[in-house]
Automatic annotation (TrEMBL):
Residues 282-343 form the Aminomethyltransferase C-terminal domain. InterPro entries: GcvT/YgfZ/DmdA (IPR028896), GcvT/YgfZ_C (IPR029043), GcvT_C (IPR013977), GCVT_N (IPR006222), TrmE/GcvT-like (IPR027266), YgfZ/GCV_T_CS (IPR017703). Residues 6-262 form the GCVT N-terminal domain. Signal peptide: none annotated. It comes from the Bacteria. This is Folate-dependent protein for Fe/S cluster synthesis/repair in oxidative stress.
């Protein structure tokens, strides 16, 4: 397992560790409830440097990637980001990624364990273009700030009177603790969310500066378990948990990852046909479980017929009960629809995100 660059700092803060693929992450800091509450009421800082990064250079980098992903790359302004998916010719997902377009290169930010898979997929189609793929996980680290006091924490850390919030996928270069990094608006889990990309060798001074600046604003470190709570409550699917290599992006509600004006790309015909048809046979939705215990992979039934399966389960403080993400057949997606687990208990379909 590849340890976190800041392992010793997390250990000093009471961090307990887990594995995400072959990479280390902080599971929690000993008080999951306090971490969650800080995310909802103040601010939290999450070390997401377990994520993996690819860098693409060369004169044809934008046009090459444009034909490989679901998002518009050529039309994306320099200095901004976009969420995208890579899919096969049959429309099934290879991975999802966040694309950051910079003046001299493109960065692809992926889930842990997917960097090599994405690179292999891209290299298969890289023939005569002037583009080169570089493994860049060792170059970059990612820190995530969440919570309603995020702007105050950043203003204090940057030494400014205020911090103007970033729109989704807007990017801004900043200098923090003498280190140049890139802030990206990332409100998918929580509307105030901001991600900070910094050189991996500078993670320690930047982390310490943010912790010090956040002390007066209730900042707490956030582990992966609490992050998963926020993710599921927000109805955001995660590749490797709610999306796999048979998932079609539209099934996972990833319309925001798809450009319908960009022209051809790998798998475009499948997406176009499904969009024209107007529905998918199944879609990702929410489930209210009450006190029913269920695990990912559990079958969902309507009468004797299997109509879906569960992918993620958490106990939601906001809902006061267990909630889940699940794929459900399109005939049973109406909110309030009662389904049963194979073991017998009933659960209810709920819209995403959970209220």
């Amino acid at each position: 397992m590849e340890p976190l660059t800041l392992h010793f700092l997390h250990e000093q803060a009471g961090g307990r560790f887990t594995a995400l693929g072959s990479r280390e992450a902080v599971a929690d800091y000993g008080d999951l409830e306090a971490e969650y509450r800080a995310a909802r009421e103040a601010a939290v800082l999450h070390d997401a440097s377990y994520r993996e990064t690819l860098r693409i250079t060369g004169e044809d980098r934008a046009s090459f990637l444009h034909g490989m992903v679901t998002q518009d790359v050529k039309g994306l302004p320099v200095g901004t980001a976009a969420y995208t998916a890579l899919i096969t010719a049959k429309g099934a997902m290879v991975a999802d990624a966040r694309l950051l377009k910079r003046e001299a290169d493109l960065l692809l930010d992926t889930e842990p364990g997917l960097g090599a898979k994405v690179r292999e997929f891209l290299e298969k189609y890289l023939i005569s273009e002037d583009a080169e793929l570089h493994e860049a996980t060792g170059e970059w680290g990612l820190l995530r700030l969440l919570g309603p006091r995020t702007a105050e924490v950043l203003a204090a850390a940057l030494g400014t009177a205020s911090f103007e919030p970033l729109a989704a996928n807007a990017a801004r270069t900043v200098s923090l603790a003498g280190v140049e990094g890139v802030l990206v608006g990332s409100p998918a889990f929580e509307k105030h969310g901001v991600d900070l990309f910094v050189p991996r060798g500078a993670l320690e001074p930047v982390w310490k500066a943010l912790v010090q600046a956040g002390g007066a604003h209730g900042l707490k470190p956030l582990g992966f378990q609490a992050l998963e709570l926020l993710r599921v409550e927000a109805g955001v699917p995660r590749y490797g948990q709610d999306m796999v290599d048979t998932t079609i992006p539209l099934e996972a509600n990833l319309t925001h990852a798809i450009s319908y004006n960009k022209g051809c790309y790998i798998g475009q015909e499948v997406i176009a046909r499904a969009t024209f048809r107007g529905h998918m046979n199944r879609k990702l939705t929410g489930l209210l479980l009450g006190e029913v215990e269920a695990a990912p992979g559990a079958e969902l039934r309507k009468g004797e017929k299997k109509v879906g399966w569960i992918t993620s389960v958490v106990r939601s403080p906001a809902q006061g009960q267990r909630v889940a993400l699940a794929y459900v057949h399109r005939d049973h997606l109406d909110p309030g629809t009662e389904l049963t687990l194979a073991a017998g208990p009933s659960v209810k379909v709920a819209p995403l995100p959970f209220a």
